[in-house]
Design brief:
The complex is a heterodimer of chains A (about 100) and B (about 280). Chain A is mainly alpha-helical. Chain A is elongated, with a radius of gyration of 18 Å. The relative contact order of chain A is 0.13. Chain B has three domains: about 90 residues, no CATH class; about 110 residues, Four Helix Bundle (Hemerythrin (Met), subunit A); about 35 residues. Classes of the chains: A mainly alpha (about 100), B mainly alpha (about 280).
Chain lengths: ~100, ~280
């Protein structure tokens, strides 16, 4: 029995979530905001796998299945989000999120 | 020793005192193991050692600070007080996590713990670099370390397939995609030093401090119903079985979502090229 327990992983997940939220809140660059979203999804994944290891009974892997789904949706989100960023750049010639406040040219 | 120049001799003296101070700190830590001696000898030895270290360092680093005589003693006392407060608070927070229920001290040097702390530091340092770097390329590279650290944490939790998927999809896919998006879009303001500027960083830092404080408090204080730690065994086969039995519908829906994301991102990103070229697609 090691001294590393569930709270350690939850604290790592909390730190990842907080740093990702800072990235989302303070960035001006749209790509930077998407990077913050990826950090937040990673934080949720750490919590899923940690709860799966420490709380779920033996032989159950629901938390890991959920983490795989989160990774899949993160990939889809990154593809669509970065495509939208490229479209915004082609329209406005900038990806500063303070400048892009119109839905059309 | 008479022919040794005085500067060299002073250098050697300072080096010796510095080494003695460092040895004194280690010795004080060892002295603390003999609990029947009480705390006073440890504190005295620590103070003397910190004084020696500061006096030794004074000759090498802080040449602009004139420390001698009583000033040195006062300065080292202040430094020792600050160090003691830091150690006290860190010990007060960390010690409940290190002591088991019987009050026995669980050693620092447990290999699995060291591996966990290495991955945790890698993850958090990477995320902090991503959050606070001024250059967005550096942010992307810092995210690489965060992703690798999270993959290591998955391995630590007995989740081998999610760890491999993390490396393949995040590091091999999403990070490359992000780097492409960075290089296809012009930097904000044209100043390469400020490609990743912040808005209201103090507010963001306060938000982060509040969030992490609340979440960490909850994580430590909540009475989690944990089961005994499971043995490490491969989970890939069980994951495949779960995907094709209990989670078949979500699995198929995820496939459709991926296909829709693929088609949709291609259509969104190619819009301008279609308008610029002479070939107008119906």
């Amino acid at each position: 029995m090691t001294s590393i327990g569930l709270p350690h992983f939850l604290i790592v997940g909390a730190a990842l979530f907080a740093l990702g939220m800072v990235t989302v809140v303070t960035r001006r660059n749209a790509v930077g905001i998407l990077m913050g979203v990826e950090l937040i999804l990673n934080a949720a994944n750490v919590n899923f796998v940690a709860f799966n290891h420490y709380v779920e009974g033996p032989g159950k892997i629901t938390g890991q299945v959920f983490s795989i789904f989160v990774i899949v949706l993160a990939a889809a989100e990154a593809a669509v989000g970065l495509a939208i960023v490229l479209a915004i750049y082609q329209t406005f010639r900038t990806i500063d999120v303070r400048e892009t406040d119109l839905l059309r040219e | 020793m008479a022919e040794v120049p005085s500067k060299l001799r002073a250098f050697l003296v300072r080096l010796g005192v510095l080494a003695a101070g460092l040895a004194g700190i280690v010795g004080a830590a060892l002295l603390n193991r003999f609990a029947h001696l009480g705390l006073a000898p440890t504190l005295l030895l620590e103070y003397a050692a910190v004084t020696c270290v500061i006096w030794g360092l004074n000759g090498f680093l802080f040449r602009t600070v004139p420390l001698s005589g009583a000033t040195l003693l006062v300065f080292s006392a202040a430094a020792f007080g600050i160090l003691f407060l830091i150690a006290y608070f860190v010990g007060g927070i960390v010690a409940p996590l290190l002591l088991d229920t019987a009050g026995r001290f669980i050693g620092f040097v447990r290999l699995a713990d060291l591996v966990f702390y290495a991955f945790a530091v890698l993850t958090i340092a990477g995320a902090a670099g991503c959050a606070f770097s001024r250059n967005i390329i550096y942010s992307a590279w810092a995210m690489l370390f965060a992703f690798l650290g999270v993959a290591g944490l998955y391995v630590f939790l007995g989740a081998d397939f999610p760890a491999v998927a993390q490396v393949l999809i995040y590091v091999g896919g999403i990070l490359v995609l992000i780097l492409f998006a960075i290089m296809l879009t012009r930097q904000i303001g044209g100043d390469p030093k400020l490609t990743n500027a912040h808005l209201g960083l103090p507010v963001g830092a306060a938000l982060a401090a509040a969030t992490i404080g609340m979440l960490a408090y909850m994580a430590v204080m909540a009475p989690w119903k944990t089961v005994p730690v499971r043995s490490y065994e491969p989970v890939s086969a069980a994951l495949g079985t779960a995907f094709l039995t209990d989670f078949l519908l979500p699995f198929e829906v995820a496939s459709v979502v991926l296909l829709a994301a693929l088609v949709g991102s291609v259509i969104i990103a190619r819009k301008e090229i279609k308008e610029d070229s002479d070939m107008v697609l119906e």
